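User: I've been going back and forth on whether these two constructs are worth ordering. Before I decide, could you fold them both?

Assistant: Sure. I'll take them in the order you sent them. The first construct and its structure tokens:
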Amino acid sequence: MGYVAVTGGQEAIQASIQLLKEYRSKGERPVGLQVLRDRMGLLIDRIMSEAGLYAPDYAALALKQCEGSPEEAVFLLRAYRSTLPRNYTSRTVSGDQMHIRRRISSAFKDIPGGQILGPTYDYVHRLLDFGLLEETEGELRQWRQEFEAGLPASPEGELPDTAPRVLDLLRAEGLIEQVEEDHSQPCDVTMEKLPLPAPRSAILQTLTRADTGFVSGLAYSDIRGFGMSHPTIGELRYGSLEIEVDYPLDEDAAWYVGDIFVTEVEGLMGTRAGGEGIGVGYGCVIGRNDTKAIAMSVLDHALTLQIDSPTSDMEFVLLHGDCLEMNGFISHLKLPHYVTFQSKLDSLRKRKRRLEDEQGN
């Protein structure tokens, strides 16, 4: 590549870094990490998902460091993640074990365990709340006290903490497409190069770490007609999963190391041509992110179809959604390209002179 180093620019670079800090530190009071973590939860969840590291405090730190840029925050968090040792491998967890905060189905009205709306913006008016301009800590504290006072004192009559899978009803009837189980060791896309064609473990890892906007846009294009998926949400659930690792001195025992919050989706995608049973797409992302989990389930199914579609092209989908790679490649265009561009200009000038000479003769 025809890149050249910029010489004599050290002072300019240092001045640029100082100016960057000035932009980041505007205002009289610094922004606390707890405020970012607690009040910007959806953004923190997105950063952790795309970075592949469940660390709310560090995600808030990265967000503060880069003026709120999600892409830069993901870059910082992934860079930190790469320095961490891997002392243990967690045991396999299942969405069946999820402690549910939200659980809905658009395929069935009545489901075992009931529908739980949970925290969602689905039913709010998309109008600016100008009351937030004058919000005070005292008012917020009073509201929380009133809210907590209205919570039931007894668990009697409450919805269950866990619930069976909705799609198990269809599986019991034999209406779900049969998929051969894969018991091979999962591919780790953070430790090895993504193989193509990729196994499903690599597909799911890549999609859950992919840029939220990219995944959503591709899924939207697939649904609009550039693919063959027409999804119905069999079940969407959000909640916490308990993470355990093997106890070093006893393989049958386990250590509980903490909880992570995830959003999980099973989407019903219709029946394949000539196939038996309804196809299912799966999505699971860190934190509370309905849109990305649904979009991921659409692409998971689309990548199993042997059709001429952008969303069924494994290389196209998996190699262009990583926010680090896409932003890094686009950002590299800001580097000096003097040699390559001058070469293009020289070729253009020679061609122009040759055409002028031919026309003159």
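The second construct, handled the same way:
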Amino acid sequence: MAELRFDKDGLIPVVVQDHVTNEVLMVAWANPEAVELMKATGYAHFWSRSRQRLWRKGEESGHVQRVVSIQTDCDADTLLVRVEQTGPACHTGSPSCFSETIHGSTDGTMGVIPDLRRVLLDRLENPVEGSYTCLLYSDENKMCKKVIEEAGEFALAVKDGDDENMAWELADLIYHAMVAVAKAGLPMEKVYEKLAERRR
């Protein structure tokens, strides 16, 4: 295992990601003790440069981060920690500390996935009249048939080789599959474990 390289102040930057969506939740700092506490307790611990003390994420708010994995970069001077986040990660109440776009757009990126997932889960907990998502939740047969229908339409679009149509149909398939996953309560961790078996 690589020996971690802490800076002159005995700290190492920590990038924290959601373990399901890979959304970057926050960036913090850790000293050797915080790193060991993460491994020993299974919860995110950091070093506060402003308060000059160790802290456990969520110790006041209750918005804890259960550590799923810890990786280091090629220079062993930065950590990537994937977590199961309870509540919002940001002290402002935002799901991520990176919520403000100052250039470009996240619409053409994977950033749309965690946003869509949050909407789908919210519709499940808080139904909205007139919502198509809620209509699907209320009619399991329709919900399941739409997954099959969209899979077929995507396959035909692939056969036709039309990029615009493929993108449209794949977006429909992903959306309807995500609705079904949310409704079924399927843990994505199980899906990822199965996908890991296919890396050959």
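Notes on the second construct follow. Residues 135 and 143 are 9 Å apart (CA to CA). The radius of gyration is 20 Å.
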